[in-house]
Amino acid sequence: MTVRNTFAACGLLLCALFGTAHAAEPEDFKTPEYFASRALDVINAADAYALGYTGKGQVVGVLDTAVRIDHPELAGKADAYPFFFSPDWNFLTHGSHVAGIIAARRDGVAMHGVAFDAGIWNAAVIDSPCDTYLDDYFARRPDVRIFNNSWVIDWLPILDEDGKDIFSAQEVITALRGDTLIGPILMHAINSPESVFVFSAGNEGQMSPSTGPASLPRFVGSDLGNWLNVGSLNTSGISRDEASGELVLKTDAVSWFSNLAQGTELFTVMAPGSNIYSLDASTNGYMPDSGTSMAAPVVSGALALVAQAYPWMSGKQLADTVLTTANSTFTAPEYVVLFETATQTVHIVSIDGALGDTLSHEEAERLVTACINEDVDAWVGWDAHALAAVDNGNFDVVQMTKEEVFGQGILDVGKAVRGIGRL
Predict the structure, then answer these.
(1) Which of 83, 115, 76 is nearest to 99 (CA)?
(2) Chain CA centroid to CA 390, Å
(3) What is the pLDDT of residue 158?
(4) 3-state DSSP helix/strand/coil percent for the chain, to nearest 5?
């Protein structure tokens, strides 16, 4: 009798001291602000938030154009390496849009970032009349471990028609080490294994990213395990199976402009990048934008959540966590359509042999039209150009595996915060 009463008293005391515990549920975070960016639900961000991971205590480096750090979504939690010019915010909108995807506040207004409690450390390395001394940029904030790079250099193919490297590893490394932008980044990644660098794959509509910087681990090897390449998805082409909850992709699920993963499969992940709603530096408001530039910061924000969960992880371990937990079991479409704007060529990518090696003009037109009609808005005016290219016979069929298209799969931060997955 005495023991029973003692336990009852202890229970009442604990309730009085701490109240009744209520575990957060993913649905608690699925607000209009959550859905507004069009980037969060496909990557299962709410699952990570329900576990308590919001990016708190993390700061993400944004190497981009100048970021408008006084935007209401960033004010007080974003800082920038000194630059001595007055930004024209009507022109310099890119970096702010990227920063918002990573870390815009969850405040009930418009949209919020993947890691809405994280901070931003900006370096104006694009469209800047002033030099940014990257060695000093890195040294000033040694606490910053995750660096987003939503930019590319001129596209050069990795592989020839036979699937062999066009350039040797030594040629690539020698050329890029001497580059005033890529060189310091490459050396910091190698010499600071706690860091991780995220690169956009590029918007050329090619089967692979360019020969550097996104593809550098192919040439540098294991010393660059802390380096990720990110391709772009169009979330309007992605749904969930009602029974299993698994993702089902339509033909427009891969952004028509995105470079794919061929040759970089082992360090590539896909993330939303079409019509992503984020910050507009020109008005201090919001705007949509598209590109692999928008997909990369989704991954950088996810890494901030993983780093919060596992602060002891090295950069390679953080990257491996994102790669090994990526969703690779989704239902892929039979084909996707890319449009190479530089040559006005349409590439009809047959996944795992779903289409034949050749198509008649009529069949190509039917497939491309069907893809465009799934989401005309995603083509932002390029749909007419793509259809004209097909009409002029400027199309081909490219056979690729699912992994060559998607790399390790679709980012799943809800799983990533639970630790490294398949090996």
Answers:
(1) 115
(2) 30
(3) 87
(4) 35, 20, 45
